[in-house]
């Protein structure tokens, strides 16, 4: 069962998402919050698998709530997905840097929304490569500055990070590198540990910020 926390200051938005999620046999909404501070408290109380967090809220906004969840060892299993009305913007990029696993635009189709929740629950990033490139190209400082010590990665780990940034899954990375999926996962996980990345989305951001991967125009 996928346990979901809804954090949004608009009751109508929360009720709409709750209705969608409650109709699914494998998803349970464990709590709702109207601001980031309450969301953080409820995350600690309920330990959800997914926290759907609005980016702009009173008391504590979604970016700071994400940062605090990501920094709390007790919440290491909570995957934050940012909800936004605006699509690609600096708020989304800052949320990804803070530790969000991805983002969803609120006018998403219901079937795509449910699929995204399940993808995030598996620990996969909700970022298409084209979206990642647009975000990085628009918001990362140039020239690239190191956000993680990529020099500490092995050649295989560096290769795996580049492939993650291109949007490949562990199985696809394994095929590309001619290794087993387990070994591919090991390379990715070790790179995340060395670069202090919370998840694959943050690993992608670090890959671009450090210059390991270069955004294409």
Automatic annotation (TrEMBL):
It comes from the Bacteria. Residues 145-211 form the HTH luxR-type domain. Keywords: DNA-binding, Phosphoprotein, Transcription, Transcription regulation. This is LuxR family two component transcriptional regulator. GO terms for molecular function: DNA binding. InterPro entries: CheY-like_superfamily, NreC/VraR/RcsB-like_REC, Sig_transdc_resp-reg_C-effctor, Sig_transdc_resp-reg_receiver, Tscrpt_reg_LuxR_C, WalR-like. It holds the Pfam family GerE. The modification 4-aspartylphosphate is found at residue 54. The keyword Transferase does not apply. Residues 3-121 form the Response regulatory domain. One of its GO terms (biological process) is regulation of DNA-templated transcription. The keyword Transcription regulation applies. It comes from Lentzea atacamensis. CDD domains: LuxR_C_like (cd06170), REC_NarL-like (cd17535).
């Amino acid at each position: 069962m996928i346990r979901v926390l809804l954090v949004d200051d608009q009751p109508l938005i929360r009720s709409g998402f709750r209705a969608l999620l409650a109709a699914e046999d494998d998803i349970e909404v464990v709590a709702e919050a109207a601001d980031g501070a309450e969301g953080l408290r409820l995350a600690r109380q309920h330990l959800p698998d997914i926290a759907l967090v609005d980016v702009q809220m009173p008391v504590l906004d979604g970016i700071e709530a994400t940062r605090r969840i990501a920094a709390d060892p007790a919440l290491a299993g909570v995957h934050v997905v940012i909800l936004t009305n605006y699509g690609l913007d600096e708020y989304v990029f800052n949320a990804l840097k803070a530790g969000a696993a991805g983002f969803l635009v609120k006018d998403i189709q219901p079937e795509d929304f449910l699929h995204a929740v399940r993808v995030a629950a598996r620990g996969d990033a909700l970022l298409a490569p084209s979206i990642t490139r647009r975000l990085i190209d628009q918001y990362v400082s140039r020239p690239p500055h190191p956000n993680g010590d990529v020099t500490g990665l092995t050649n295989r780990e560096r290769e795996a990070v580049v492939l993650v940034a291109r949007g490949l899954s562990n199985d696809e990375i394994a095929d590309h590198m001619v290794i087993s999926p387990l070994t591919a996962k090991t390379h990715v996980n070790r790179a995340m540990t060395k670069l202090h990345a919370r998840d694959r989305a943050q690993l992608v951001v670090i890959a671009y910020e450090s210059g390991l991967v270069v955004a294409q125009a």
